[in-house]
Design goal:
The structure holds two protein chains of two kinds.
Chain A lengths: L3 E14 L2 E14 L3 E5 L6 H9 L5 E7 L2 E2 L7 E4 L11 H6 L7 H13 L15 H14 L4 E5 L7 H18 L2 E6 L2 H7 L2 E6 L4 E7 L11 H24 L4
Parallel strand pairs in A: 3-8, 3-9, 6-7, 7-8
Antiparallel strand pairs in A: 1-2, 1-4, 4-5, 9-10
Chain B lengths: L1 H10 L4 H24 L11 H14 L1 H33 L1 H15 L3 H12 L3 H25 L3 H9 L4 H38 L5 H10 L3 H29 L9
The chains are: A alpha/beta, B mainly alpha.
């Protein structure tokens, strides 16, 4: 930890809609160190997904600077892993072939890495299964393994556990933390769940909507593994919640509504 | 105990044999009715020879070898027309599906050709290529081309954009995007096109062989018609139906194997 990996300065992004220009992000500033676990939280429409897609190189047409290891983001690529809310596996490929995707499974080193990853995401015995045979949590673990095989410098996760039930979600959070502790892959995790944000992140970035901008960044210095029932956890949770309530007030006085 | 188990199995869910029997019920009863009506002279034996007479004629034709040599000739025609037309359809469908420029260049002309009825080009084909094999194979190929072409095109354009994003994030090369994403995604449509094409190939074959030919099942039928040998005409119809069904079954088996990843309603 220590080196700045991702640097976002003066980031602005607007969308053209039927009703005119809508500012999605305004003056976003964020420095992410190598090995950090950043969680980004905000109500829907605050631009958190847009922010993530810009870092991934999927969205363009912004102003400001976004650099990864000092180089401007050129476009999507394997140095920036991306996990979508849906698993987005290739339905015609088995689990192991999905993880390999365009890489040849016949190569011994690819084979070895894929086997290791299957071990890491605990999918032993499902190597030959098709996505339709997997549960939501399992499919999302395959997607994570697929991204990790490319050894990304940063892993971007866009509400990856949003569609899962509470138990699976809690389990997946542990799995992800496990992976992070072993690989030290830098993570940016977008969510709308406060518990999840505090449970996972070194820092919680709170975005407010219309236009999307950073309201606060709250450092979470609780040691891992964290327990959601401890007092210190609840205090931090309240801190995040308070920051949110101000966002809500703002929205009400603004009259913008949802 | 065993009796009860048997009762439960028959009363609860129909077995596989029962479901297969369901498909035979209608044609089976029609055949029996036909045979009975023909036997008692209630329908014309000239227009509707009884199933028994047709079966006799089948045995005569097959034991003399006429049937099989004609069938071989017909099958080779249908298959080569299908391979030529379907293959070209697949190739051009991929080309037009992948690139907007080739779509603009080729698609309007191809759609124009599609609208020309096959029968309308028969005189031209005979003038150009004679009444030999070329004109027949080309006529079949023209029919077989379009279902594969259109369905390949549609399958490629129907590729999920979300999966395209994944391929970008995973750093697929352009070629890998085509081989690993676009083509597999289009396989369900392509297989549908192949099935339709194969059916049209048999139809085209009949047209080609009835018009001008000295061999093949279609020729055998038109020859029999001239001598009012109705049972042979029926044999030809049955052979065409059986050959069509057989080829469709083979394609369906291939389809099921290729699409076993699909999660769809099984009926």
């Amino acid at each position: 930890m220590g080196e700045i990996l991702l640097s976002i300065t003066q980031l602005n992004k607007s969308f053209g809609t039927a009703g005119g220009q809508v500012q999605a992000l305004r003056n976003v500033e964020l420095q992410v160190q190598e090995g950090e676990f950043i969680t980004v939280i905000g109500p829907s429409g605050c631009g958190k997904s847009t922010l993530l897609r810009i870092v991934a190189g999927l969205d363009t047409g912004y102003t400001g600077r976004v650099t990864l290891e000092g180089a401007e983001i050129g476009g999507p690529g394997i140095d920036k892993g991306f996990i979508f809310q849906e698993h987005r596996l290739f339905p015609w490929l088995t689990v192991e072939k999905n993880i390999a995707s365009d890489l040849p499974l016949g190569k011994p080193e690819i084979r070895r890495k894929v086997d290791e990853l299957i071990e890491l995401v605990k999918l032993n015995g499902f190597e030959q299964a098709y996505p339709r045979e997997l549960s939501g949590g399992m499919a999302q673990r395959v997607a994570i393994a697929r991204a990790l095989l490319r050894s990304p410098k940063i892993l971007l996760l866009d509400e990856p556990f949003g569609a899962l039930d509470a138990f699976t979600r809690a389990h997946m959070q542990t799995v992800l933390l496990d992976i992070w502790r072993r690989n030290r892959t830098t993570m940016i995790f977008v969510t709308h769940d406060i518990d999840e944000a505090v449970f996972l992140g070194n820092r919680v970035v709170i975005l407010e909507p219309r236009p999307g901008q950073i309201r606060r960044i709250i450092p979470v210095d609780l040691p891992y593994p964290r327990k959601k029932t401890t007092n210190s956890f609840q205090e931090l949770r309240l801190k995040v919640l308070n920051a949110f309530e101000k966002v809500d007030e703002l929205e009400l006085t603004d009259g913008a509504g949802i | 105990m065993t009796q009860r188990a048997a009762a439960v199995s028959t009363a609860g869910r129909p077995g596989k044999a029962a479901i297969a029997g369901l498909g035979l019920l209608l044609p089976g009863s029609i055949l029996i009715l036909w045979q009975v009506l023909g036997h008692y002279g209630m329908i014309s034996g000239m227009l509707f020879p009884t199933p028994y007479t047709i079966a006799e004629s089948f045995v005569t034709l097959s034991s003399s070898g006429d049937l099989w040599s004609n069938l071989r000739i017909s099958a080779v025609r249908a298959l080569s027309g299908f391979l030529l037309g379907g293959g070209l359809g697949l190739l051009l469908g991929i080309l037009v599906g992948l690139f907007r420029k080739s779509e603009k260049l080729l698609d309007p002309s191809l759609q124009m050709i599609r609208m020309i009825p096959s029968l309308a080009v028969v005189p031209l084909f005979i003038l150009w290529f004679g009444i030999g094999e070329e004109s027949k194979v080309l006529l079949i190929a023209k029919g077989a081309f379009f279902p594969v072409y259109i369905n390949t095109f549609m399958g490629i354009r129907g590729t999920d954009n979300k999966l395209f994003e994944v391929s970008k994030v995973l750093g697929f090369s352009r070629i890998k995007q085509i081989i690993r994403l676009v083509l597999p995604a289009a396989v369900p449509n392509i297989m549908l096109g192949v099935r339709l094409s194969l059916g049209l190939s048999w139809l085209g074959l009949v047209v080609a062989e009835l018009i001008a030919s000295t061999s093949g099942i279609g020729y055998m039928m038109s020859d029999a018609r001239q001598f009012a040998d109705t049972p042979v005409v029926f044999v030809g119809i049955i052979v065409f139906a059986a050959a069509g069904l057989l080829s469709d079954t083979i394609v369906r088996l291939i389809e099921r194997r290729l699409l076993r990843w699909q999660d769809s309603y099984q009926g």
